[in-house]
Amino acid sequence: MAENVKYSDTIRPICLPQSPELRAMTFYNEYADVAGWGRTEVSSYSTVKRTISLLIWDTDACAKRFATINIPVNKSLQMCAGGQALQDTCQGDSGAPLTMRSRVMNSPHFVVGIVSFGMQPCGMQSWPGIYTRVTHYIDWILHNLED
């Protein structure tokens, strides 16, 4: 980076799922949190950071759902979360982290996904959002952090 990041209430570091156990997990049927300033149910951008907990889908079920509209889901590179009516990320949330808290007591949150895309309009029942699967990119991230 050209300059140091200035931490604030809305900008701070987060842990990566580096352990072999976390890298192997699908996180299927668990809840994860996502936060952002994207569009809300009234179609305007939020003026405050909003958060929501979303259920992570089985990637096979998600891939089958999106195959019905000819959108491929790469199960090793992507993951799906959400699908409850009016509970979703939306335009302006792309790039936001999908985070979880470790099951180990007093351990920090870690990022499992990054908001990629979803259906229009946002928050459609039975249509999850698509997230980039962070565990697939851990080695690349760590390599680039060294530079």
UniProtKB/TrEMBL annotation:
<protein>
    <submittedName>
        <fullName>Serine protease easter</fullName>
    </submittedName>
</protein>
<dbReference type="InterPro" id="IPR051487">
    <property type="entry name" value="Ser/Thr_Proteases_Immune/Dev"/>
</dbReference>
<dbReference type="InterPro" id="IPR009003">
    <property type="entry name" value="Peptidase_S1_PA"/>
</dbReference>
<comment type="similarity">
    <text>Belongs to the peptidase S1 family. CLIP subfamily.</text>
</comment>
<dbReference type="Pfam" id="PF00089">
    <property type="entry name" value="Trypsin"/>
</dbReference>
<dbReference type="GO" id="GO:0046872">
    <property type="term" value="F:metal ion binding"/>
</dbReference>
<dbReference type="GO" id="GO:0004252">
    <property type="term" value="F:serine-type endopeptidase activity"/>
</dbReference>
<keyword id="KW-0865">Zymogen</keyword>
<dbReference type="InterPro" id="IPR001254">
    <property type="entry name" value="Trypsin_dom"/>
</dbReference>
<keyword id="KW-0720">Serine protease</keyword>
<feature type="domain" description="Peptidase S1">
    <location>
        <begin position="1"/>
        <end position="146"/>
    </location>
</feature>
<keyword id="KW-0479">Metal-binding</keyword>
<dbReference type="GO" id="GO:0006508">
    <property type="term" value="P:proteolysis"/>
</dbReference>
<keyword id="KW-0378">Hydrolase</keyword>
<keyword id="KW-0106">Calcium</keyword>
<keyword id="KW-1015">Disulfide bond</keyword>
<dbReference type="InterPro" id="IPR043504">
    <property type="entry name" value="Peptidase_S1_PA_chymotrypsin"/>
</dbReference>
<keyword id="KW-0645">Protease</keyword>
